């Protein structure tokens, strides 16, 4: 019997909201998996203590309280930074503490490609020893353009040459950074190297990019959902309501967090759309 998709929810939509509110809202919306979004440049308050044992214990308590599970950790960062290996090592340790397998990350600029490759080659054995996979993500803005399309990503995987490094695919990022490409087909071409996926829709308004409920933007996800289902690749809804990308594709965060009641309704509408596309309840 073909495995059914069980999408999780990335917490980017709860940027600036207390973690317990995010957990309770995701559970109320009917989802069972959560992906923490600790992404440089996209969410606020990324204190290093987030990756320590005290916060890990807090996350485990919340997972138990709200009967949620986690498979993935969003940890976008510049992997060419001078202390990148040390920083990302703390993320691997944190993922291990909370039970997340996939570390999803946009990883830096094209001009730093060789440094990024070298750092990932150093990090890969640590990830493998920890039972984790570093899932490099096609970027959506110029700060994370080391790869944006399938051939660029495949070349990176070949250069890194480790089973502990794979893809997290995100069609929504392709829409902004490489609009001349068919975003869904581009990500389908990445599937042989993918271990995780983000489901993100995009609404283009006056040259800027916003992230609505799934099914309310420009992307038809049905072909990709079927591929993820057939390949048993886990996924999370990534709907960063507080953030949009300007015409230069750089991210801009609103001054105030989004009301969790709005996030709940967006999740409910997204769930309904996914159920209609898949033909079964989530």
Automatic annotation (TrEMBL):
Keyword vocabulary terms for this entry: Isomerase
Domain Xylose isomerase-like TIM barrel: 25-240
GO terms for MF: isomerase activity
InterPro entries named among the record's database cross-references: IolE/XylAMocC-like, Xyl_isomerase-like_sf, Xyl_isomerase-like_TIM-brl
PANTHER family, per the entry: HYDROXYPYRUVATE ISOMERASE, INOSOSE DEHYDRATASE
Protein name: Sugar phosphate isomerase/epimerase
Organism: Jejubacter calystegiae
Lineage, broadest ranks: Bacteria, Pseudomonadati, Pseudomonadota, Gammaproteobacteria, Enterobacterales
